């Protein structure tokens, strides 16, 4: 992994030598992919994406993107990211699990990654981090892409000519994504566990803590906070 470090003497994140080697050597390519995953484990939350590599197959990642505002607000869309054998010379491919209306998503749920990053040349401005950032942005600002591509002509035309119908169809897809959030597929490693605790459980704990005469107010507050945090941990994403 020493080769896969920022070369401060170069304009690229990786040297041309390493990139060329990765396209021919699976081990070098996989090391770069592992580095990318390590980087994303720190920064992906900034654009509301969670990711997990497929078990024993680092070249395939399973993820979910959560949209906070815009036409796709509240949408939680699951996707698969695949690294081609020619990565990092070639851009990774992205496919959503469910149909989504968007000018950059075709009828087979594939994303037009070449429009997201038109001139892919692996380096500081062309990494998986940048690609996923663009993926998030394409849901926020659809108007930027509606006439740029013919990847999905129907979506582009509907957005331009009948925004109300476009928004209504997207609204249904967002609702469907929420309904299917905990429908975990066997072939998808990112498993989501539905929360099981409720307000009544927390209220009961609060009553128990308040009834204790041996605790100060600060201790009671701390105990309640720890209980809520523990409840949250028990309901986190399960791999």
Automatic annotation (TrEMBL):
InterPro entries: Ub_conjugating_enzyme (IPR050113), UBC (IPR000608), UBQ-conjugating_enzyme/RWD (IPR016135). Pfam families: UQ_con (PF00179). Residues 28-179 form the UBC core domain. This is UBC core domain-containing protein. It comes from Paramecium tetraurelia. The lineage of its organism: Eukaryota, Sar, Alveolata, Ciliophora, Intramacronucleata.
